[in-house]
Design brief:
Layout (H helix, E strand, L loop, with lengths): L2 H4 L3 H21 L12 H13 L1 E3 H8 L3 H13 L3 E5 L7 E5 L1 H22 L4 H19 L3
Antiparallel strand pairs: 1-3, 2-3
Length: about 150
């Protein structure tokens, strides 16, 4: 590699530094908050739980699409969540091929706790911006996410 190839884009370096600082901030906000009530929640587990929470109940196929996993990988994650007492599965009475996933009381309480914590953290992060800056920041994040994820 020549010297030209080793140079890093300054904008990318700034983004990297910013995301590291924000990552440390997020980590410090949640450090020491684990208790016996809150099992280790991976991003995939959280997306599964949040999706069920927002929809009241979901089919396994819908959850697989939401987290972009195979049905087998989704089933493994759901097995762990069920073992942790956060969800329950129920066969549809009319069509036994369909399995519905619902949150347990513990699962619902956990999702609400995490969503509240995230909301408080995002409010604090946005509080350093003016209202116009907040609107612009959110619009820019939406633009990036829509372009990358193909959503509208």
């Amino acid at each position: 590699m020549g010297n030209e190839e080793k140079r890093f884009d300054p904008q990318i370096q700034r983004i990297d530094q910013i995301t590291e600082r924000i990552g440390r901030y997020v980590g410090s906000r949640f450090a020491g908050q684990e208790d016996s009530f809150q099992p280790k929640i991976t991003p995939v587990k959280f997306i599964l739980l949040r999706t069920v929470y927002l929809n009241q109940r979901c089919m396994v196929a819908d959850l697989s699409r939401e987290v972009n996993l195979t049905s087998g990988a989704t089933t493994l994650a759901l097995n762990r969540l069920e073992k942790e007492g956060l969800i329950r599965r129920q066969r549809d009475q009319a069509d036994r091929r369909i399995v519905w996933v619902e949150l347990s009381e513990e699962g619902e309480a956990l999702v609400e706790k995490i969503l509240w914590q995230r909301q408080q953290m995002f409010k604090q992060m946005l509080s350093v911006l003016t209202e116009d800056e907040q609107d612009l920041f959110i619009k820019l994040l939406e633009k990036i996410s829509f372009k990358l994820c193909g959503q509208k």
